[in-house]
Structures are given as structure tokens and as C-alpha cells.
Amino acid sequence: MLISILLILLLPFLLAPIYDSIERKVKSLIQSRVGPRGFIRSLLQSWFDIAKLFSKELVITGYGILIITMLELFLIASTAILLQILILFNNLIVVKTLFIVFLSISTAFFITRSIALNNPFASIGVFREFHIVLSTESFFLPSLATVLFINASLPLKLMLLIIIALSCYVLSSRIPFDIAEAEPEIASGVNIELSGPLLGVAMYSLHIKRYVLSEVLSYVLLKLFNVHLELYTFFVITLLTFIIWITTSIISIILARTRVDIGPATMLKTMIILMILTLLIYMLTVK
Q1: Is 226 domain-assigned?
Q2: Which spans are transmembrane here (predicted)?
């Protein structure tokens, strides 16, 4: 039993790069490109990329960058572990609270790392990321907390699900909300000063973050529709997480890029409208 729980806790760290590899292969097939050849190579390409980065020389512009980057990985890893515990033991209020706290702090450390780089391209990227986070997390975290702590009515559940689904997509840094990096435009933006092992840590953190966001949406889907969360349900959530990951990657191919000043503003207006509708539904359905 202990070994099973340990494997479940480690699952995001093993699967996240594999899911990213599959995403890259799916994108290459849709766009008629030649992706990684061979089944094993296609499945483990992101792991190979991370291992290659870790094999290079460690070059840092300051020890502050090293500490912040490692703390960012630690926080998103802690968030992933807390989410796994939350799925296994659904009624632990302390875990629910810590999960929301760690989820918000991990984003703050991503912004802190980018500011600490002291590079004009990184500064442009971090201000873009700040606008995205400001227009999304302010609505995402309260909606997630409502789902975790309150038994809402069905109309209210649907509105919260829409807000959470949109937020998970936006915060995963996929097109058109990858403007903090925007590699073809500003030379990798927030990651421009990172290389070798540090870049590998940053990439790995992003993979885990995308896994966590996909799993959050999977968990919310089952919880909102009153699926009883037992141990076997974890495997359903894992399968649903993979489906959501691939679905969001396909959506990112369909969507076009947006202007950096329009994307966050449009998302903010959308979230405000959705939140107003949510509050109206709550006032109409509350007894």
C-alpha cells in the first residue's frame, strides 16, 4: 500500500515530460512535420532534452537566479504532491488550503525569477506574464476554492467549471497566451539568461505545471458532477488528465497569436463577465 501511494505521488514527475513528448508528436502530425522518429524516442523526447541540458556546463549569472529557479521547482513539485494527496484523501481541509497557497506562490516565484534575471528581454516577458496572471489568477483561485470547499448548485458549478477551464488553459502558457516567452519575437523572453541545467530545471517546472493544471481540471470535473473519489478514481483522473493535456495542445494549434496588449485585456474582460454571471447565479440559487 505504501509503495502504491509513493508511486502515485511520483506520477506527475514521471508523466509530465512524457505527455509533453506526445504533445510534440501530435503537433508534428497535425502540421505535417517530421517529429521524433521511433516509438520510444517519440515517447521520451522531452526526457532526452532535459537530460541533455543537465549534461551541459552550469553557467549562472548570479546565485540568486540559481536559488530562485530551484525554489520555483520545489514549489510546483510541492503543489503536484499536494494535489495527489488531495485526490487520494478528498476531505483533508489542510491539504486543500495548502494546495491553493502553493499553487499561487509557485506562479509568484516564476515572476520573481524573471525579474531577477536583469535582462531587458526577460523584463518584457515578465511584465507580459504579470498581466496574464493578473487577468486570470484573481478569478481562478477563488473559483477553485469555491469548488473545493462549497457544495454549489449545478448552474453555479457549470460557471465555475468554465472559469477554471479557461484559467488552466491560459496559465499553461500555450498560444496565444505564451507571450511571456514568445520565442520567435523576443528571443525566449523570460528564459533568455538560462542555459544548461538551469534551463532544464525551468523546462521541467513548466512540464509539471502543465500536468498540475490538467489534473486540476480533471479533478474539478469529477468533483463538480459528484463522482465519488476513491482510490480507483485516481486512474480515471490520470486518464482524463492525459486527454485534457492533448486537447489543450490541439486547441493551441488551432488558435492564432494575439497582440500582447489585446490578449490579457480580452481575458480580463471575459473573466469579469463570467464572474458577474457567477455571482448572479449564486444570488438567484442561494436559499
Answers
A1: yes
A2: 63-86, 93-112, 158-177, 231-255, 267-285
